[in-house]
Amino acid sequence: MTTKHKPDHATHWSTRSLADELETSHNFVARVWRSCGFKPHLIRTFKISNDPHFEEKLTDFVGLYLDPPDNAVVFSVDEKSSIQALDRTQPSLPIVKGRCGTMTHDYKRNGTSTLFAALDIFSGKVIAKCTKRHRHTEFLRFLKKVYKETPKDIDLHIIVDNYSTHKHKKVNAWLAKKPRVHLHFIPTSSSWLNLVERFFALITEKQLRCGVFRSVEQLENTIYTFIEKRNQKPKPFVWTKSVDEIMTKVNRARQSLLNV
């Protein structure tokens, strides 16, 4: 019943609504759901890339992660835009025995910043720059920063997404003059392929989500301090999945959609 039919006036069953339908107890329904692993109230979202060259690009990226070129460094690059400098209207209460820390729901906005980050996939170190905006101008300025801070006798393979600023004509003109710099564009709707996203999740969890910032300057200083300390003892994010493993899951998902 749980998987075959939906209730008339809801998107999913609850233990009580299904119990009423079957004329049994909600405790019995709950026990059956637990034994089967059913959680009708939870939904997982998904996105399958429609890029016609998905497998070809996937092979390129997995190759960069698992078997990078000799005499080269691979950077995973992206921007985390609109990071808010939020101050709270009342002081937060610290964690104590029997109670978690608290933070008032009300906040004051003090501006935003954009974090450009280049994650060295081998060493785990991060090159970063905070800016007010995230146009092609700022992206190109950041590329030049990465270029200057890396050895001149090695190639740079830079992984980016398909954001329009990454393909601007001025960016392309600069790249044409820098033969040792190679941009690799991930497939559409495939941000999970860009390892720097994992770093953004880390800094959000460790520093930004529960932070209190009274100015953009304080926010940016906090970001720089976090990155500086992490770079002292960097820990790379290790890619483990092969192309075949990923394509097996992607093809399974595509087939499942065809069978719906």
From TrEMBL:
Residues 77-219 form the Tc1-like transposase DDE domain. GO terms for molecular function: nucleic acid binding. Pfam families: DDE_3. Gene3D superfamilies: Ribonuclease H-like superfamily/Ribonuclease H. Signal peptide: none annotated. InterPro entries: MscS-like_channel, RNaseH-like_sf, RNaseH_sf, Tc1-like_DDE_dom, Transpos_IS630-like. This is Tc1-like transposase DDE domain-containing protein.
